[in-house]
Amino acid sequence: MRYGTGGSQSSETAKTQRIERLSGSGASWTLYFPPKDAVSFSRAPLVSVVGEDVVGTQSTCRFNVPKDVAKALLKQVKEDGVPTSPHAMETVLEGLQISCAAKRLTDLVNRRDYATKEAQERLQRSGYSASAIEDVVERATRGRLLDDDRFAETFIRAKISIGWGQGRIKRELARRGISAESVSGWPEEYFAQGEELERAWELVARKPVSEKNGYQKLVRFLVSRGFDYGIARQCASRRVEEESEE
User: Does this model's pTM top 0.90?
Assistant: First the structure.
Protein backbone atom coordinates (compact mmCIF):
# COMPACT_ATOMS: atom_id res chain seq x y z
CA MET A 1 0.00 0.00 0.00
CA ARG A 2 1.33 3.41 -0.91
CA TYR A 3 0.57 6.54 1.06
CA GLY A 4 1.23 10.14 0.09
CA THR A 5 -0.10 13.69 0.26
CA GLY A 6 -1.30 16.13 -2.33
CA GLY A 7 -2.20 15.46 -5.95
CA SER A 8 -5.38 15.86 -7.94
CA GLN A 9 -7.14 14.32 -10.91
CA SER A 10 -7.31 16.21 -14.21
CA SER A 11 -10.74 16.85 -15.69
CA GLU A 12 -9.83 14.82 -18.78
CA THR A 13 -8.82 11.81 -16.68
CA ALA A 14 -11.94 12.10 -14.54
CA LYS A 15 -14.14 11.80 -17.62
CA THR A 16 -12.77 8.35 -18.44
CA GLN A 17 -12.65 6.71 -15.03
CA ARG A 18 -14.98 5.46 -12.33
CA ILE A 19 -15.13 7.67 -9.25
CA GLU A 20 -16.69 6.70 -5.91
CA ARG A 21 -17.12 9.03 -2.93
CA LEU A 22 -17.34 8.07 0.73
CA SER A 23 -18.32 10.45 3.49
CA GLY A 24 -19.41 10.26 7.08
CA SER A 25 -18.42 11.32 10.60
CA GLY A 26 -16.80 14.44 9.18
CA ALA A 27 -14.51 12.51 6.83
CA SER A 28 -14.54 12.55 3.05
CA TRP A 29 -12.74 10.05 0.79
CA THR A 30 -12.77 9.71 -2.99
CA LEU A 31 -11.82 6.53 -4.86
CA TYR A 32 -10.38 7.08 -8.33
CA PHE A 33 -10.42 3.85 -10.32
CA PRO A 34 -7.99 3.65 -13.26
CA PRO A 35 -9.46 4.23 -16.73
CA LYS A 36 -10.58 1.05 -18.46
CA ASP A 37 -7.91 1.53 -21.11
CA ALA A 38 -5.11 2.05 -18.56
CA VAL A 39 -2.04 -0.07 -19.35
CA SER A 40 0.77 -1.13 -17.03
CA PHE A 41 3.35 -3.72 -18.05
CA SER A 42 4.99 -4.31 -14.68
CA ARG A 43 2.01 -4.03 -12.33
CA ALA A 44 -1.77 -3.83 -12.52
CA PRO A 45 -3.15 -0.24 -12.46
CA LEU A 46 -4.07 0.81 -8.93
CA VAL A 47 -6.98 2.69 -7.38
CA SER A 48 -6.22 5.96 -5.59
CA VAL A 49 -8.04 6.46 -2.28
CA VAL A 50 -7.85 10.20 -1.63
CA GLY A 51 -8.89 11.83 1.64
CA GLU A 52 -9.90 15.46 2.13
CA ASP A 53 -11.00 17.15 5.35
CA VAL A 54 -9.86 14.05 7.23
CA VAL A 55 -9.13 14.19 10.96
CA GLY A 56 -5.41 14.55 11.64
CA THR A 57 -4.42 16.08 8.30
CA GLN A 58 -4.11 19.58 6.97
CA SER A 59 -3.82 18.49 3.35
CA THR A 60 -4.96 15.76 1.00
CA CYS A 61 -3.77 12.22 1.77
CA ARG A 62 -3.66 9.33 -0.67
CA PHE A 63 -3.42 5.53 -0.64
CA ASN A 64 -2.92 3.43 -3.79
CA VAL A 65 -4.41 -0.08 -3.70
CA PRO A 66 -5.44 -2.89 -6.09
CA LYS A 67 -8.95 -2.80 -7.56
CA ASP A 68 -10.22 -5.74 -5.52
CA VAL A 69 -9.13 -4.01 -2.31
CA ALA A 70 -10.95 -0.81 -3.32
CA LYS A 71 -14.11 -2.77 -4.12
CA ALA A 72 -13.89 -4.56 -0.77
CA LEU A 73 -13.56 -1.17 0.93
CA LEU A 74 -16.78 0.05 -0.69
CA LYS A 75 -18.60 -2.97 0.73
CA GLN A 76 -17.06 -2.72 4.18
CA VAL A 77 -17.88 0.95 4.81
CA LYS A 78 -21.57 0.16 4.33
CA GLU A 79 -21.38 -1.98 7.47
CA ASP A 80 -18.61 -0.38 9.53
CA GLY A 81 -18.75 3.26 8.47
CA VAL A 82 -16.16 5.54 6.90
CA PRO A 83 -12.65 5.68 8.45
CA THR A 84 -12.17 9.13 9.94
CA SER A 85 -8.36 9.43 9.89
CA PRO A 86 -5.43 8.40 7.69
CA HIS A 87 -4.33 5.90 10.33
CA ALA A 88 -7.81 4.36 10.49
CA MET A 89 -7.98 4.11 6.69
CA GLU A 90 -4.50 2.59 6.52
CA THR A 91 -5.48 -0.05 9.10
CA VAL A 92 -8.67 -0.92 7.22
CA LEU A 93 -6.90 -1.11 3.86
CA GLU A 94 -4.07 -3.28 5.20
CA GLY A 95 -6.58 -5.79 6.54
CA LEU A 96 -8.38 -5.82 3.19
CA GLN A 97 -5.07 -6.20 1.35
CA ILE A 98 -4.32 -9.36 3.33
CA SER A 99 -7.75 -10.91 2.76
CA CYS A 100 -7.80 -10.02 -0.95
CA ALA A 101 -4.22 -11.21 -1.51
CA ALA A 102 -5.06 -14.51 0.23
CA LYS A 103 -8.05 -15.00 -2.06
CA ARG A 104 -5.97 -14.13 -5.12
CA LEU A 105 -3.30 -16.65 -4.13
CA THR A 106 -5.89 -19.38 -3.55
CA ASP A 107 -7.39 -18.70 -6.98
CA LEU A 108 -3.93 -18.97 -8.58
CA VAL A 109 -3.03 -22.24 -6.85
CA ASN A 110 -6.41 -23.75 -7.71
CA ARG A 111 -5.40 -23.47 -11.38
CA ARG A 112 -1.88 -24.91 -11.00
CA ASP A 113 0.88 -25.30 -8.43
CA TYR A 114 3.25 -22.38 -7.86
CA ALA A 115 6.74 -22.03 -6.46
CA THR A 116 6.91 -19.56 -3.57
CA LYS A 117 8.91 -17.01 -5.57
CA GLU A 118 6.47 -17.25 -8.48
CA ALA A 119 3.52 -16.66 -6.17
CA GLN A 120 5.20 -13.64 -4.57
CA GLU A 121 5.90 -12.13 -7.99
CA ARG A 122 2.31 -12.63 -9.13
CA LEU A 123 0.99 -10.90 -6.00
CA GLN A 124 3.48 -8.06 -6.46
CA ARG A 125 2.30 -7.53 -10.04
CA SER A 126 -1.26 -7.36 -8.73
CA GLY A 127 -0.18 -4.40 -6.58
CA TYR A 128 -0.56 -5.75 -3.04
CA SER A 129 1.60 -4.26 -0.30
CA ALA A 130 4.87 -5.94 0.69
CA SER A 131 3.60 -6.55 4.23
CA ALA A 132 0.37 -8.17 2.97
CA ILE A 133 2.29 -10.42 0.59
CA GLU A 134 4.71 -11.45 3.32
CA ASP A 135 1.83 -12.31 5.67
CA VAL A 136 -0.14 -14.27 3.06
CA VAL A 137 2.85 -16.20 1.69
CA GLU A 138 4.05 -17.11 5.18
CA ARG A 139 0.65 -18.53 6.11
CA ALA A 140 0.36 -20.32 2.76
CA THR A 141 3.77 -21.92 3.31
CA ARG A 142 2.88 -23.05 6.82
CA GLY A 143 -0.36 -24.57 5.54
CA ARG A 144 1.46 -26.12 2.54
CA LEU A 145 -0.69 -24.30 0.03
CA LEU A 146 2.75 -23.33 -1.25
CA ASP A 147 5.34 -26.11 -1.05
CA ASP A 148 8.56 -25.76 -3.04
CA ASP A 149 9.51 -29.42 -2.54
CA ARG A 150 6.19 -30.59 -3.96
CA PHE A 151 6.37 -28.06 -6.78
CA ALA A 152 9.93 -29.06 -7.72
CA GLU A 153 9.17 -32.79 -7.87
CA THR A 154 6.12 -32.27 -10.07
CA PHE A 155 7.94 -29.75 -12.26
CA ILE A 156 10.96 -32.02 -12.80
CA ARG A 157 8.90 -35.06 -13.78
CA ALA A 158 6.69 -33.01 -16.10
CA LYS A 159 9.67 -31.48 -17.92
CA ILE A 160 11.50 -34.81 -18.22
CA SER A 161 8.37 -36.21 -19.90
CA ILE A 162 8.62 -33.59 -22.67
CA GLY A 163 12.33 -34.08 -23.26
CA TRP A 164 14.07 -31.49 -21.08
CA GLY A 165 17.58 -32.26 -19.86
CA GLN A 166 19.16 -31.66 -16.46
CA GLY A 167 20.69 -28.32 -17.38
CA ARG A 168 17.48 -26.69 -18.54
CA ILE A 169 15.51 -28.04 -15.61
CA LYS A 170 18.11 -26.65 -13.18
CA ARG A 171 17.99 -23.23 -14.86
CA GLU A 172 14.21 -23.05 -14.80
CA LEU A 173 14.01 -24.15 -11.17
CA ALA A 174 16.60 -21.50 -10.25
CA ARG A 175 14.51 -18.87 -12.05
CA ARG A 176 11.68 -19.87 -9.73
CA GLY A 177 13.87 -19.56 -6.64
CA ILE A 178 14.60 -23.28 -6.18
CA SER A 179 18.03 -24.92 -6.24
CA ALA A 180 17.91 -28.33 -7.93
CA GLU A 181 20.56 -29.55 -5.47
CA SER A 182 18.09 -28.94 -2.63
CA VAL A 183 15.56 -31.34 -4.17
CA SER A 184 15.58 -34.76 -2.53
CA GLY A 185 16.94 -37.41 -4.89
CA TRP A 186 18.29 -34.98 -7.49
CA PRO A 187 19.43 -36.04 -10.01
CA GLU A 188 19.79 -39.80 -9.42
CA GLU A 189 16.13 -40.57 -8.77
CA TYR A 190 15.03 -38.62 -11.83
CA PHE A 191 17.74 -39.53 -14.34
CA ALA A 192 18.80 -43.18 -14.39
CA GLN A 193 22.30 -43.93 -15.70
CA GLY A 194 22.26 -43.87 -19.49
CA GLU A 195 18.72 -42.48 -19.62
CA GLU A 196 19.90 -38.94 -20.38
CA LEU A 197 21.87 -40.15 -23.39
CA GLU A 198 18.93 -42.22 -24.61
CA ARG A 199 16.48 -39.33 -24.36
CA ALA A 200 18.88 -36.98 -26.14
CA TRP A 201 19.29 -39.47 -28.96
CA GLU A 202 15.52 -39.85 -29.32
CA LEU A 203 15.29 -36.10 -29.95
CA VAL A 204 17.80 -36.09 -32.82
CA ALA A 205 17.45 -39.61 -34.26
CA ARG A 206 14.98 -38.48 -36.92
CA LYS A 207 15.92 -34.82 -36.99
CA PRO A 208 17.10 -33.63 -40.44
CA VAL A 209 20.79 -32.81 -40.63
CA SER A 210 21.48 -29.47 -42.26
CA GLU A 211 24.04 -29.53 -45.07
CA LYS A 212 25.68 -26.45 -43.57
CA ASN A 213 26.95 -26.72 -39.98
CA GLY A 214 24.71 -29.72 -39.34
CA TYR A 215 26.80 -31.02 -36.44
CA GLN A 216 26.99 -27.64 -34.69
CA LYS A 217 23.25 -27.08 -35.09
CA LEU A 218 22.43 -30.45 -33.54
CA VAL A 219 24.76 -29.74 -30.61
CA ARG A 220 23.19 -26.32 -30.03
CA PHE A 221 19.72 -27.84 -30.25
CA LEU A 222 20.43 -30.42 -27.54
CA VAL A 223 22.25 -27.95 -25.29
CA SER A 224 19.28 -25.57 -25.58
CA ARG A 225 17.07 -28.41 -24.33
CA GLY A 226 19.26 -28.70 -21.25
CA PHE A 227 21.49 -31.66 -22.13
CA ASP A 228 25.12 -31.84 -21.10
CA TYR A 229 27.56 -30.64 -23.77
CA GLY A 230 29.32 -34.01 -23.85
CA ILE A 231 26.05 -35.87 -24.44
CA ALA A 232 25.05 -33.32 -27.09
CA ARG A 233 28.34 -33.83 -28.96
CA GLN A 234 28.07 -37.62 -28.75
CA CYS A 235 24.52 -37.71 -30.15
CA ALA A 236 25.26 -35.10 -32.82
CA SER A 237 28.29 -37.06 -34.02
CA ARG A 238 26.27 -40.27 -34.19
CA ARG A 239 23.44 -38.58 -36.10
CA VAL A 240 25.79 -36.96 -38.64
CA GLU A 241 27.60 -40.28 -39.12
CA GLU A 242 24.32 -42.12 -39.74
CA GLU A 243 23.21 -39.43 -42.17
CA SER A 244 26.41 -39.78 -44.19
CA GLU A 245 25.91 -43.55 -44.44
CA GLU A 246 22.38 -43.27 -45.85
Answer: no
